[in-house]
Design a protein that fits this description.
This protein is of the alpha+beta class and 177 residues long. The strands form three sheets. It has a four-stranded antiparallel β-sheet with strand order 6-7-5-8, covered by helices on one side. It has a two-stranded parallel ribbon with strand order 1-2. The relative contact order is 0.14.
């Protein structure tokens, strides 16, 4: 209710520019969607909205332009579509069975298919940008041929989370042999 009241008070004066600092933190899904609609109405009526958020789905839904900041520096700026296309056509996500040597999987994907595969901190999810589905199919086939323990895999359009990880945090760590 407090966030709704803050937004309502800000809208009353019909500002030219409105700053929203993580406006949906702590909101339930219904309240979040209502706030998104209110922001969209503001923009439609000519208000420039500067939004800070950790929720990349929110940025994708609301922003015309997005800037990623890491270690106090802007590392990328663009429309959501430009940022997503900058990491490749599609994202191949492979969930490995616990105990699989993730570093070897990434090396295999790089040597056989030229993929820049990266894994998450837990070492169970590997992601790689692929230009076309045929390359993803070949990569999975190679892993199966090498008896890699795959739990699940998917091919999807990139989301802003993928952009964030590609730019900053989704760096592979050498697994202990």
């Amino acid at each position: 209710m407090r966030r709704r009241l803050d937004l309502a008070a800000g809208i009353l004066s019909r500002p030219e520019v409105m700053f929203l600092d993580e406006p949906t933190t702590g909101l339930d899904p219904q309240s979040r969607r209502e706030l998104w609609e209110a922001v969209r109405r503001l923009v439609k009526n000519g208000t420039t909205v500067l939004l800070t958020t950790q929720y990349l789905e929110e940025a994708d839904q609301l922003a015309d332009r997005i800037g990623f900041i890491a270690q106090g520096r802007i590392i990328a700026v663009g429309t959501p579509e430009q940022l997503k296309s900058s990491i490749g056509g599609k994202t191949l996500t492979i969930r490995l069975t616990k105990g699989t040597n993730t570093a070897n999987v990434c090396r295999l994907l790089a040597s056989e298919h030229g993929l820049d595969a990266r894994w998450d901190d837990e070492g169970l999810v590997v992601k790689a940008a692929v230009r076309e589905a045929a390359l993803a199919n070949a990569a999975i086939g190679t892993l199966v041929d090498h008896s890699t323990a795959i739990e699940d895999f998917s091919l999807s359009e990139p989301i802003l989370d993928d952009v964030y990880f590609a730019l900053t945090a989704f760096r592979g760590k050498e697994a202990a042999s």
